[in-house]
Amino acid sequence: MSHDTVIHRIVRPAVRVAARSGVSPNQITTVRLLSGMVAATCFASGTALWLAIGGFVFVLSMLLDRADGELARQTGQMSKAGHRYDLAADCLASMAAFIGLGVGLAGAHGVLAIWLGVAAGVGIGTLFAELNVLNVASVRGYTLAPGIVVDPDDAMVLMPVLIWLGCAWPTTIAAAIITPSAAIALALLGLRRRH
């Protein structure tokens, strides 16, 4: 995974300030996890206002996701335990966001919305496990243009943008198809590499 994505660059100035404050990377990870759960709770309310607020909280949570690792690198506080905690928090926050979105959309779209949210959440969780625990494949940043690097999980920033554009339902449907499909494809790729 790249450490110089667009989101890393956005958080770097704030991280320099945080480094002088004595805040630890694990404290930022905890706030990231809590903010991800708050975003999921906002999504679960299902009202347009709370969906929009949840989107803003989710973006903050994503920024914190990059800030914890950036702080660990800047202050020499990197550890395997901290890295595992970061991965678990990222996974849980992303899973909860999609499940919350499905719950929130159930009022308008019935129980199918909940199942789609769960499918998207489980797909995200499975991808995290495949990439970070099972090491089925490695994730790297992609250079879109000189100086513009993104990681695949940076695509999660599209979720709140699409919600703000009024596309929460199609986003949930797409995520429920794409994330499990990607997890299955990655599992098959891993099996092929082993044989």
Quickly list its features.
77% helix, Four Helix Bundle (Hemerythrin (Met), subunit A), two-stranded antiparallel sheet, mainly alpha, single chain, 195 residues
Could you give a short description of this structure?
By secondary structure, the chain is mostly helical. The chain contains 7 helices and 2 strands. The chain has a two-stranded antiparallel ribbon with strand order 1-2.
The number of distinct structural domains comes to: 1
Oligomer category: single chain
Number of DSSP-assigned strands: 2
Q: State the fourth-level CATH superfamily.
A: CDP-alcohol phosphotransferase transmembrane (TM) domain
Rg is 17 Å
| Mean pLDDT score | 89
Distance between the termini: 26 Å
Largest beta-sheet details: 2 strands, antiparallel
Could you say what the CATH architecture is?
Answer: Up-down Bundle
Broad shape: globular
CATH topology: Four Helix Bundle (Hemerythrin (Met), subunit A)
The first-level CATH class name: Mainly Alpha
Total helix count?
A: 7
Helix content: over 70%
- Spans of at least 5 consecutive residues whose pLDDT stays below 50 are none
Describe this structure in words.
There is one protein chain. This protein has helices at residues 6-21, 25-45, 48-75, 80-109, 111-132, 158-164, 168-194; strands at residues 142-145, 148-150. The protein has 195 residues and is mainly alpha-helical. It has a single domain (6-194), classed as CDP-alcohol phosphotransferase transmembrane (TM) domain (Four Helix Bundle (Hemerythrin (Met), subunit A), Up-down Bundle). Strands 1-2 form a two-stranded antiparallel sheet. Strand 1 (142-145) and strand 2 form a beta hairpin. The chain starts with 5 loop residues before the first helix and ends with a helix. The mean pLDDT is 89.
